């Protein structure tokens, strides 16, 4: 009902702190399992009921804590048992992990390991829930693009390195 009567000039949907931005909006059932992932390789999955209903212009609730000042959220999605979690890093690594590999925890924690960024000197750029019949399109900072069918990527465990999904030129990033 809060978005029922939208004016031509729009309405405020959320208040954001300076420097923050809204990256995703997902429609959920109200009973979904939510996955939130950050650049430094951690993620947390929690029951949507832990994110209580609040007013339209409120800031929201904390999903995950950051250990580093330069960390940021790189993915947020609803999980289901028949899906996979796709993780892509800036240096061209990627992996599919069964959604069941992401146990439910409480929100507002430091999360669990999804990718070991320190070990591979890499950073996560995207995490989302997908089906193996989807395709993945990747664009690099230099403008190169590839399309990869996800059924060609073998599923790996949550804490694994994954596989090379794109060869990058020197100093190029996804």
Keywords, separated by commas or semicolons:
174 residues; mainly beta; four-stranded antiparallel beta sheet; 2% helix; 30% strand; globular
Description of the molecule:
By secondary structure, the chain is mostly beta strands. The protein contains one helix and ten strands. The protein has one helix at 117-120; strands spanning 33-38, 42-47, 73-79, 84-89, 93-98, 112-113, 124-130, 135-139, 145-149, 163-164. The protein has a four-stranded antiparallel β-sheet with strand order 3-1-2-6, with no helix packed on it. Strands 7-4-5-10 form a four-stranded antiparallel β-sheet, with no helix packed on it. Strands 8-9 form a two-stranded antiparallel sheet. A hairpin with a 5-residue loop joins strand 8 (135-139) and strand 9. It is globular and about 50 Å long. The mean pLDDT is 90.
Give a short synopsis of this structure.
The strands form 3 sheets. Strands 3-1-2-6 form a 4-stranded antiparallel β-sheet, with no helix packed on it. A 4-stranded antiparallel β-sheet has the order 7-4-5-10, with no helix packed on it. A two-stranded antiparallel ribbon has the order 8-9. With 174 residues, the chain is an all-beta fold. It is 2% helix and 30% strand.
């Amino acid at each position: 009902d809060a978005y029922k009567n939208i004016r031509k000039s729009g309405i405020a949907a959320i208040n954001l702190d300076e420097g923050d931005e809204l990256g995703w909006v997902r429609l959920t059932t109200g009973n979904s399992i939510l996955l939130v992932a950050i650049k430094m390789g951690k993620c947390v999955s929690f029951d949507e009921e832990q994110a209580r209903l609040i007013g339209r212009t409120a800031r929201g609730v904390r999903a995950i804590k950051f250990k580093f000042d330069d960390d940021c959220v790189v993915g947020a999605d609803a999980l289901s048992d028949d899906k996979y979690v796709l993780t892509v890093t800036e240096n061209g690594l990627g992996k599919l992990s069964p959604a069941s590999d992401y146990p439910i925890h409480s929100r507002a924690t430091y999360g669990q390991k999804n990718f070991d960024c320190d070990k591979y000197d890499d950073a996560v750029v995207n995490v989302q829930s997908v089906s193996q019949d989807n395709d993945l399109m990747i664009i690099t900072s230099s403008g190169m693009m590839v399309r990869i069918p996800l059924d060609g990527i073998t599923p790996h465990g949550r804490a694994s390195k994954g596989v090379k999904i794109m060869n990058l030129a020197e100093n190029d990033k996804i």
